[in-house]
Amino acid sequence: MKYSITQNGLPLDKSLYTLDEKTKTFSSKENNLVLDFGSESNCTFKTGSDCTFKTGSYCTFNTSYSCTFNTGAYCTFNTSYSGTFITGSDCTFRTGSDCTFKTGAYCTFDTRSGCTFDTDFACTFNTSYSCTFNTKSKCVVVRRDIHEVIELKEGIKTTLNGYEIKGYTEKENLKGKTVTIEVDGKKYEAIFK
């Protein structure tokens, strides 16, 4: 098993964590860790806040707030608020508020308010107010604070209204689209990034 565990740019003292290489289970109460397990799969992590993870698939994370995850598919996240997730498909998220997600398909989210989602298709969101979604097809939002169900449209950026205000706003997602503009009789093409 190949891995790197650092804190503030230095290797973490082995007395501050446990790592069972047979079960691939890491545990530490420390904050500000950088855990690079490469493409290692089937790992379990229990850490404090402000940690950064790089792993393979089928991993489980039990962390505090403000952690960043760059993982493969089929992972499970049980975290607090302000996390950032860049994952593959078929992941399950249970988080606090103000998180950012960029995922593959078939993910399930149980979050709080102020989250941003950029996902593939067939995802389910159980969220609160002021969340923003940019998804592909077959995604649904269940809004807990006012008991509202919203079917998201592919390619349309959707933002939920504020606390206890029903509804949402939609804006076409222009990312990757080409438009032609004319300036002084000359035509130019521009691609939205």
Detailed description of the structure:
This protein has no helices and 23 strands. The protein is mostly beta strands. The protein folds into two domains: 80 residues, no CATH class; 94 residues, no CATH class. The strands form three sheets. The chain has an eleven-stranded mixed beta sheet with strand order 2-1-5-7-9-11-13-15-17-20-21, with no helix packed on it. A ten-stranded mixed beta sheet has the order 3-4-6-8-10-12-14-16-18-19, with no helix packed on it. A hairpin with a 4-residue loop joins strand 18 and strand 19. 27% of the residues are buried.
Give a topology summary.
Layout: E1 4-7, E2 10-11, E3 18-20, E4 25-27, E5 33-36, E6 44-46, E7 52-54, E8 60-62, E9 68-70, E10 76-78, E11 84-86, E12 92-94, E13 100-102, E14 108-110, E15 116-118, E16 124-127, E17 132-134, E18 140-143, E19 148-151, E20 156-160, E21 168-172, E22 178-183, E23 186-191
Parallel strand pairs: 4-6, 5-7, 6-8, 7-9, 8-10, 9-11, 10-12, 11-13, 12-14, 13-15, 14-16, 15-17, 16-18
Antiparallel strand pairs: 1-2, 1-5, 3-4, 17-20, 18-19, 20-21, 22-23
Q: Please give the share of residues in helix.
A: under 10%
Shape: globular
How does the major sheet shape up?
A: 11 strands, mixed
Residue-averaged pLDDT, rounded?
90
The class by helix and strand makeup works out as: mainly beta
- CA radius of gyration is 19 Å
Total number of beta strands: 23
In whole angstroms, the N-to-C terminal distance is 39 Å
H/E element order: EEEEEEEEEEEEEEEEEEEEEEE
Count of separate structural domains: 2
Strand order of the largest sheet: 2-1-5-7-9-11-13-15-17-20-21
**Unreliable segments of 5+ consecutive residues:** none
Task: List the total number of helices.
Answer: 0
- Beta content comes to 35-45%
